[in-house]
Amino acid sequence: MKLHRIIIPLLCGWLGAIAVWIYDTPTAPPGIAADAAIVLGAAISGDEPSPVFRERIAHAISLHDEGRVQQLIFTGAQGEGDTLAESEAARNMALAQGVPAEAILIETQSVTTMHNLVEAQLLMRDAGLDDALIVSDPLHLRRAMEMAEALGLDAEPSATPTTRYQSWGTKLPFLAREVYFMHHFWLFGE
Description:
The protein is α/β, with parallel strands linked by helices. It has a single domain (32-164), classed as Rossmann fold (3-Layer(aba) Sandwich), CATH 3.40.50.620. The protein is 51% helix and 13% strand. It has six helices and seven strands; from the N terminus they run αβββαβαβαβαβα. It has helices at residues 4-23, 51-65, 86-96, 113-127, 138-151, 168-188, and strands spanning 36-39, 44-45, 48-49, 71-74, 104-106, 132-136, 155-159. It has a five-stranded parallel β-sheet with strand order 5-4-1-6-7, with helices on both faces. β2 (44-45) and β3 (48-49) form a beta hairpin. α4 (113-127) crosses α5 and α5 (138-151) packs parallel to α6. The chain is globular and about 65 Å long. It starts with a helix and ends with a helix. This is YdcF family protein. It comes from Aurantiacibacter gilvus.
């Protein structure tokens, strides 16, 4: 028997199982509260959050308005060609929606999900915050929660209730990307 007849089906089965595991978005108990919401960065255009990032920011604002978190932590550095850091654009949107400035923390250094979480953890430590809800798109949360656990963050997932990734044509590329980056995290810790 040729080895590839065993390896290829095993590899396809493994990747398929990981994809299903990622697709099965981790969820926190309904109504769970925490000291802060960590909003994972996403692209901006100039000084405006992308539609994906707007969904994350809007969800965090809702968590704050509902009293489920006291602080919003926005993450993300300035991308090439942008006029602001991702976190600064998020702060501006939250301020415009009535969130008090003292309820917002930002970091402007991170460029990856792991770096977002490391920088947010430092902000939490400095502000005396103990636990967090991690806000991102449903398909991104499995990897983010694996990273949070590796960092020892006391965190629960809080997926955006709406997402730009609605059709299979948009979900499949995002899911494939997450399968790849999950393995990258497991292999390299980032």
